[in-house]
Write the structure tokens for this entry.
Amino acid sequence: MEFLSNYIYYIGAFGLIFIGLFIILVKHNLIKVIIGIGILDTGVNLFLIAVGYISKGTAPIFSKAGLDANNMVDPVPQALVLTSIVIGVAILALALSLAIRLYKHYGTLDLRKIKEQRW
Amino acid sequence: MVNPILLIVVPLGLAFALPIVNLISKKIIKYIPVLAFLFNLILSLLLIPKVLEQTIIVKIGGFHPPFGINLFVGPVGILFSTLIALAGFLVSIYALSYIKEGPKEKYHILYLLLLTGATGVVLTGDMFNLFVFFEILCISSYALVAYLGNKAGIESSIKYLIQGSVGSSLLLLGIGLLYGQLGTLNMADIANQINSISSPSIFVPMIFIITGLGIEAAIFPLNAWLPDAHSSAPSSISAILSGIAIEVGLYAVIRVIFTIFNASSFLMFFVFLGVLTLLIGEMSAFSQKNIKRMLAYSSIGQIGLIMFAISLNTQLGISAGFFQMISHTLGKGLLFLSVGFLIYKTGSMKISSFEGIGKKMPITSLLFTIGAFSIVGLPPFAGFASKFMIIKAALTTGQLLFTVLIGVILLGTVIEGAYFFKVIQSIYFKGTTDIIKRDEAPLIALISMSIFVLLIIFIGVYPDFIARILNSAASEFINRIDYIRSVLG
């Protein structure tokens, strides 16, 4: 139990990453694959936050007297995650708009039926 | 003194100013990329002598590294930024007459962003910054591959997007693991502290980062997206993707291996991977019927050759690798640009449809032929000088293994020659013998392609011209202590 409570965020993050990779590799529907990319992104973001997180920590601002610097969460991963979320949104938006165009051309989103370009 | 940060800021600023200019006049927007990269080219050329004397470290916002983000403008960075600006300038001149359909202002915005991202990757000295610039490069190239909006373009773009975004997630995960152990994102600081942690905990983030970057660099098992994406994009974009984007990816991989992780024991693996990439690329190119697909597979082969040269881990080997990158950018850029108008006039990408086009478009065909000769490595073109240098570098190591591998590489070159000469044969010696009315590519495109030819011949005849910068670039990778010292002081 001790282990679980200490590493719960890492377990969750890698769980999400593997779920995302699994969806991308296994599913045939393009929308599901895009959802998989979203879950993979979320997993990576959770991992980054978990790297800098301290249990019961405070925000890294000396807002009132008596705050201890050792008890503050690391602000750098949070800045990274903000950037990474924005990038993730851009990728998802582009992917969904491409999916709409793909549907107009082929009339299907099943990746097994879309093979104009051979590998 | 000029600040190297302008190399990134000016194209980025112009990219965002372009929609506003578009409201005022729709005619002048296509000249903005030309201006931006002319500026970058002049600035890079001015900076070269200064950088060769002493590396320039730009502290963004005045925060000293490792606390702030810094740009590292060393010989490698300035070599690449000159190459990017040169290719960007010439291709944007070509695009003046090539891009006629579609949402033009979006093309020019994305084109500026793509090359801004590439310049950022080669100049930055911060891991996360590298990731961000990489994403700028990747997202704009996903969108540009789909620019024509046809079936093939959309399909390849979505394939590229899925693989590329998995790659960038892996890269970010690797950066996160590294940050969790070292608490820093500055490349020099990571390199400084990397020996303080145990090797299994370095190995995992290294594999994540190399796999993530390797997808963009099209290293062998990760290159499934490349032939589709490069063949479906507009030809001007194929030239940039093939000549700049994958090489920037490869730059990032070798920067991570050499400077950050100092993993020279890992390089033996890369030697074999490079030879494998070369053989697979060339053999797949040989069996293609679509000309752009053939050129795309040939790019994979060239990437393998560059990887082999750099993984030799000697001064001569690394500079030969950089030389091969330059000659590949020029040669493959010229090939894609000339093929763009051959396809435009014949209306087909099939190699068989080019029969007899040498009489209809003699100048464009001649330009294609020169590009092909340079890629194959015939004297007096740049490809000969660079391939010769790679062979010399491999033989001077004196190891039997490298001598054997050079034999395999020469076999790859023979295959390369075979498929290029097949195309040249069908351009000149097949088809009708009647006199056909000439129908040449536009003058402005011919001028831009001729500058590529002049550079290819000039560098091929006089390779010493760039020898000094190649040497300094190679020493930057070998002396990682100098890299760390110059940033951290």
Observations:
- Strands of chain B lie at 56-59, 70-73.
- The radius of gyration of chain B is 22 Å.
- Residues 151-182 of chain B form the longest helix (32 residues).
